[in-house]
């Protein structure tokens, strides 16, 4: 029983974090749409490889657990891919 309680407590903590992640994800997507609109107006490209790699490098450096760095990098690249997809859709609709 004690193991189950510990597992349930851990899962509840994860759910709490997941709810926070949902809010942050939605906030990030809103900002990505605004970035897409700004890039469209200024005719800036959606993808900037140098900036993207620098961003990944800087954020990955904040991860303390060495093993987690690899997982973070993959997760963050996926997040940026979604952001670029949203920005491209804005440019297609209005471009």
TrEMBL record:
The keyword Isomerase applies. Residues 7-69 form a coiled coil. InterPro entries: Chorismate_II_sf (IPR036263), Chorismate_mutase-related (IPR051331), CM_dom_sf (IPR036979), CM_II_prokaryot (IPR002701). It comes from the Bacteria. GO terms for biological process: chorismate metabolic process; salicylic acid biosynthetic process. GO terms for molecular function: chorismate mutase activity. Keywords: Coiled coil, Isomerase. Pfam families: CM_2 (PF01817). Residues 1-91 form the Chorismate mutase domain. Gene3D superfamilies: Chorismate mutase. The keyword Transferase does not apply. This is Chorismate mutase.
């Amino acid at each position: 029983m004690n193991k189950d309680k510990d597992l349930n407590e851990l899962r509840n903590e994860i759910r709490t974090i997941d709810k926070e992640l949902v809010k942050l994800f939605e906030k990030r997507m809103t900002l990505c749409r605004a970035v897409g609109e700004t890039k469209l107006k200024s005719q800036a490209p959606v993808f900037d490889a140098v900036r993207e790699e620098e961003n990944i490098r800087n954020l990955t450096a904040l991860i303390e657990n060495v093993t987690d760095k690899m997982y973070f990098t993959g997760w963050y690249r996926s997040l940026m891919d979604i952001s670029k997809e949203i920005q491209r859709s804005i440019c297609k609709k209005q471009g």
